[in-house]
Each structure stands twice: as structure tokens, then as C-alpha cells.
Amino acid sequence: MTLDVLYFAWLRERIGLSQERIETDALTVADLVEELRAREDRYALAFSDLSAVRVAVDQDLTEFDAPLANAREVAFFPPMTGG
Amino acid sequence: MATVRVQEAPFALGEEVEAFASGRTDMGAVVTFTGVVRDLAQTDLDVMEIEHYPGMTERAIGSIVDEAVSRWSLGDALVIHRYGRMGPGDRIMMVATAAPHRVDAFAAAEFLMDYLKSRAPFWKKEITEDGAGWVAATEEDEAALTRW
């Protein structure tokens, strides 16, 4: 499956990318995170504390155990600070 | 019915409120809230930079507004939220609600603000003379959602 993976705020800065397209067989968001962590230190560092990370699948906020079936876009970011 | 605008450019508060409040004969109450960049950092805040997630931002605000409309008797709602670079005193965002009665207008405006703060994908970065840092979300912001 091909996924567009987006990073925002300090995750974008730590990973050094705002967006990348990846090929993956990950079944859930958690699987995808494990795959990314294993890639390089900058990913491992960015995902070292998942309590500080939020995730959206196809632009809907969700949880790390969410399935990725039919997903096209996954975004990782810190807790939001709008308003 | 409701209007959501996510934009980099400043907005004219007076004109927006005037336009929103005009021509309504069935709405007894119009409530507006405006968010302003504060200089709260220990050192002087030079710039506030707001990042957002284009696409999801509009979608998330849209569903927050839909939720407000379903909970309260609202005639109309307006949300404008800026992104990009701003300075102390600049207006970041505004919310306006119109309802037949003020109780609904006030409650819906507060609900919108509480949810926009922690469920709309915006991230604030403060840039001071000592460096830059991302504003952390607070437990109070998250706790504010439980009252609804």
C-alpha cells in the first residue's frame, strides 16, 4: 500500500520532512510507527514518547490502534494549540 | 449556513462583526470572541508562528461547528482562524454566533473556542530573542472539553 505520511510542528522539525510517500504493509498506525522507528535515529527520536504524539488518518483524528486499510494519508503531530 | 475561513491575511474585526450581525430580525443575540497574540514569554515575544494542516483544518473546524449547531439553537456561526506569522497584539482568530437567545449564543461560542483550541490542527510557535519554542498544550485545555 502507498501512503502519504505528513509531519507537523516539532515532529516535522525532528524528522526533517513535512511529507513523504512510503510503501508499507502496516496494518495499523502502531505498526507504521514501529516501521518508521526502525528506519533511522531521527524517526526513533521523534516517536520516542507516543503520549506526546497525535495521529490523523485521512484527516480524521484517531488512535494508534486504528487500522490502515484503505488509508491514503497519515499525519503525525503534537497535541494541537489553536484558538 | 455557518462560515469557516482559514487564512494567512489579517481580518477586519469591525467589518466582520458588522456583516455578521446585520440584517437579522430573528436573532436576539450575537456573541463574538477574538483571540489575540499575547506576549507571555519570559523574554520579549517577537513573532508567533502558526502552522496548520491544510484540508484537515477546514474539515475539523467544520465538524466542530456542525456539533455546535446540533447542540444549541443557533441561527448562524462564523469562525475565522489565521496561520503564519503574527506579532504581539495581532488578532489570531474570531468566533461569532447568532441565536434567538443569548444563553445559546454564549454557550456555543465557548464550546467552539474550547474545541478549536485542542481539536483543530493548529500549532503555535513562539519566537523570542532567546530562540524558538513550540507552545505546549495544557491539561486545562484538554479538561475544558469534558464539561461539554
Please indicate the percent range of residues of chain A in DSSP E strands (runs of 2 or more): 25-35%
Summarize the helix and strand pattern of chain A as letters. Answer: EHEHHEEE
Give the CATH topology of chain B: Aldehyde Oxidoreductase, domain 3
Measured on Cα atoms, how large is the radius of gyration of chain A? 12 Å
Low-confidence stretches of chain B: none
Shape of chain A: globular
Cα gyration radius of chain B (Å)? 16 Å
Could you tell me the number of beta strands of chain A? 5
Specify the structural class of chain B.
Answer: alpha+beta
Strand content of chain B: 25-35%
Question: What would you say this structure looks like, in words?
Answer:
The complex is a heterodimer of chains A (83) and B (148). Chain A is of the alpha+beta class. Chain A has three helices and five strands, in the order E-H-E-H-H-E-E-E. Chain A has one domain: Ubiquitin-like (UB roll) (Roll), CATH 3.10.20. Chain A has helices at residues 9-15, 29-39, 41-46, and strands at 2-7, 19-23, 54-57, 60-62, 73-77. A five-stranded mixed sheet of chain A has the order 2-1-5-3-4. The mean pLDDT of chain A is 97. Chain B has a four-stranded mixed sheet, with helices on both faces. In chain B, strands 5-3-7-8 form a four-stranded antiparallel sheet, with no helix packed on it.
Labels describing this entry:
heterodimer, A: 83 residues, alpha+beta, B: 148 residues, Aldehyde Oxidoreductase, domain 3, four-stranded mixed beta sheet, 4 helices
List the helices and strands and how they pair.
The complex is a heterodimer of chains A (83) and B (148).
Chain A (H helix, E strand, L loop, with lengths): L1 E6 L1 H7 L3 E5 L5 H11 L1 H6 L7 E4 L2 E3 L10 E5 L6
Parallel strand pairs in A: 1-5
Antiparallel strand pairs in A: 1-2, 3-4, 3-5
Chain B lengths: L2 E5 L5 H9 L7 E8 L8 E8 L3 H16 L4 E7 L1 E3 L4 E9 L2 H18 L2 E7 L2 E4 L4 H5 L5
Parallel strand pairs in B: 1-4
Antiparallel strand pairs in B: 2-6, 3-5, 3-7, 4-6, 7-8
Helix pairs in contact in B: 2-3
